[in-house]
Amino acid sequence: MKSITRAKPIETVIRALEGYERVFIAGCGTCATMCHTGGVNEVAQMRAALEEAGKLVTGTLVIPTACDAVTYECLEQNKQALEDAQVVLVMSCAFGVQTVAGYAGRPVQPALDTLFFGLEDQPGHFSEVCMQCGECVLAYTGGICPITACHKGLLNGPCGGTNDGKCEIDNTIDCAWTLIYNRLKEIGRLDLMEQFYEPKNYQAMPKPGKVVIEVEAGEES
Amino acid sequence: MTQPFRDALKSGKFVVTSEIGPPKGTNLDTMIHHIGLLKDVVDGMNVTDNQSSVMRYPSLGGALLVKEHGGEPILQMTCRDRNRMALEGDLLFAHSRGINNVLCLTGDAVPVGDHKEAKAVFDLDSSQLLYTIRTMEKGKDLGDNDLDGTIDFCAGAIVTPEANPPEPQLMKFKKKVRAGAEFIQTQAIYDMENFKRFMEYARQFDVKILAGIILLTSHRMAMYMNKNVPGVFVPQNLIDEMKAAPKGTKVAKGIEIAGRQVRQIKEEGICDGVHIMAIGKEEVVPDILQAAGIG
Q1: I need a labelling partner for B270 at 20 to 30 A (CA). Which of A116, A130, A208, B251 fits?
Q2: A151: which chain B residues are within 8 Å (Cβ-Cβ)?
């Protein structure tokens, strides 16, 4: 599962950097590289765009996995360039931005918008697979998540907006409930779709998300 | 408390409902005019709730207005804009002000409307809203707390008989009936043979079915609906009939077609009544009924 990102428009990035002249750019070698939003090429393109906009780029770095604790060592190795900068432009998902912000000692600017956690089902096609709702319903839906795949997150079957197996909001998106119906039919469990599901517990997902589990001595990694 | 719409459904008479769309703004003149035209010719008037995800004067306010002007309102409630607490509160208020009928809808998606950046709610869906009403009627809210003074509604829902694929919609229909729907208003139907097939299925259930009738005003409108409105299918012969009508007589032709459909449904006893959606042409609803030989 990867963190799927989309680049903010370059005008938005440049506007956000107003008042800063010296910028350090950090990309990410994992999810953002896969999404073509924060890999080596995108970081180089960003450098060129910022220089054209009159900024001084003090250094660039593609952190192997920006959300990882190793980020600290990577930034340490680029200490001088980082200290020369007034701001760090982070080309990773929000997780990486938060990690960099914790170490950078100066303002950070996200260059990307984080969209969802998903899979690349075919080159360039990314799909969300789980919204982490805290109360998994996949047992009732043939392993297809209606909370994620249905625009309205419905639990009791399709809305009236579905058309020819597609979604009301976009006829290139499959109707989740048509997929679920087909899957349940295929596995002989349409009875699951006949069941009525009571209103969902939307507080099952802790917000802010924080879970503490007991870890036995010796198990700690 | 009297329940004119529920009584009409129970009486076995051919029931007619229509629709009132609240305005975008506070000028209620047109709405009041439409209420006046319809209140004595229909058994209930649906008051739409931010229809098509377009922000408007609220359905609850519109339903009170129908009541104040002597009509029988059917309060439409969607789950798009309010969470369960807001919906439950509105149900308490509606009951306290003499609104007897609720139509439970999931609601259109936010992006199809005019507030494209709004947060969609969908805390409940249409069948869960029906369940909520039936739960509250037993004196409890969804948090399992006791109510001091309960509610009582003639509750209904919708179905799209011509949806493709039809099976998931029929399963949802069944769920709605089991969750407590007393009446079902259908999406517009034009092909009577298709509709009769749906009714063969629907007749198994103890629920009143009102067939949706949308007034055609041009052949282009029919073609537009076929292309863009989920679950609406206008057969070619009706498109041709609209097309052949001379300019200036299109609405009259639409009234004739709608009247003919209503008459057929009534005479053949295909279902329990009709729900006429004239979409902005509410003043012709009495003409449609007259063309059908009703009223």
Answers
A1: B251
A2: 109
